[in-house]
Design a protein that fits this description.
The chain has a single domain (about 5-155), classed as Roll (Thiol Ester Dehydrase, Chain A), CATH 3.10.129. Helices cover about 30% and strands about 35% of the residues. The protein is built from 2 helices and 7 strands; from the N terminus they run E-E-H-E-E-E-E-E-H. The protein has helices at about 30-50, 135-155; strands at about 5, 10-15, 55-65, 70-80, 85-95, 105-115, 130. Strand 5 and strand 6 (about 105-115) form a beta hairpin. The longest helix has 24 residues, at about 135-155.
């Protein structure tokens, strides 16, 4: 199976936040952002595996700042760790004021996907090759998150 680099599957989705995306305060609903993050992460995982990929677990989503109506949202997803069938994606969300060009990090999420075979069951995903020191650090952090998830799962029964 061909080894793939992080950059081979990285993806960015952009969407303008409009009235249907916000609450009465003018802030984008968390659920709207979660959907966009899951779409970006799922596309990244599917691109890596060249197979359908489904969400297994949302490890964490951190909401750092609110996003307002009229801002352009960019969800960038990249793989941080790949096991045999599972793939962890880090999704970073930035909001941009279109007229000012000011960008700020608003959300970070770690979401795990599994590649599906033709039979609809988990299938092997290509190995991930981190090529920079930053990618190696992300890979190690992803490996540690995976170990923690497996430990939690074993405790829960």
């Amino acid at each position: 199976m061909e080894v793939k680099r992080v950059g081979d599957s990285q993806i960015t989705l952009n969407q303008l936040m409009q009235p249907e995306h916000v609450n009465v305060l003018g802030n984008v609903h968390g659920g709207v952002l979660m959907k966009l993050m899951d779409e970006a992460g799922g596309l990244c995982a599917a691109r890596h595996a060249r197979r359908p990929a489904v969400t297994v677990v949302v490890d964490t989503i951190t909401f750092l700042e609110p996003i307002r109506i009229g801002e352009l949202v960019a969800c960038t997803a990249r793989l941080t760790f790949v096991g045999r069938t599972s793939m962890e994606a880090e999704v970073r969300v930035e909001a941009e004021g279109i007229l000012t060009g000011n960008r700020r990090l608003t959300n970070v999420a770690y979401i795990v996907y599994v590649a599906l075979g033709d039979d609809g069951r988990p299938t092997e995903a290509p190995p991930l090759l981190p090529t920079t020191e930053e990618e190696r650090q992300r890979w190690e952090a992803g490996r540690q998150r995976r170990a923690e998830r497996l430990t939690r799962k074993a405790r829960e029964g």
